[in-house]
Amino acid sequence: MQLTENHRRYWRKNLNIMAILLAIWFVVTFVVSYFARELSFNFFGWPFSFWMGAQGSLVVYCLIVWFYASYMDRLDIEHGFEEREE
């Protein structure tokens, strides 16, 4: 199958958003936890490092999944690849 320019643009946008979201995932997972001891201030009554490890990272992961799904829905419609009911 020959890829059209529309397919290439679609795939390029998909790769760009995946790279950005993976960078956010990396920062939340490794960078914040690496510097957790230096993040010693209270956040909603708990130490921020504890909150980020126990709750914050999970919230960010859910937001990443939600954003990617909604972005891809819009991208599918923009490029004519949305699911069609038959």
Give an account of the 3D structure.
- Helix content is 72%, strand content 5%.
- Strands 1-2 form a two-stranded antiparallel ribbon.
- The two termini are 23 Å apart.
- The protein is mainly alpha-helical and 86 residues long.
- The protein has helices at residues 5-34, 48-79; strands at residues 42-43, 46-47.
- The mean pLDDT is 85.
- It is elongated.
- A hairpin with a 2-residue loop joins β1 and β2 (46-47).
- The longest helix is centred in the last third of the chain and has 32 residues, at 48-79.
- It has one domain.
- It is built from two helices and two strands; from the N terminus they run αββα.
How widely separated are the two ends? Answer: 23 Å
Radius of gyration: 18 Å
Number of helices: 2
- Tell me the fraction of residues in β-strands, as a range: under 5%
Contiguous uncertain segments of 5+ residues = none
Instruction: Please bin the fraction of helical residues.
Output: over 70%
- Structure classification: mainly alpha
- Rounded mean pLDDT is 85
Element order: H for helix, E for strand: HEEH
Shape: elongated
Oligomer: single chain
Number of strands: 2
Strand order in the largest sheet: 1-2
> What is the count of structural domains?
1
Main β-sheet: number of strands, strand sense, barrel status?
Answer: 2 strands, antiparallel
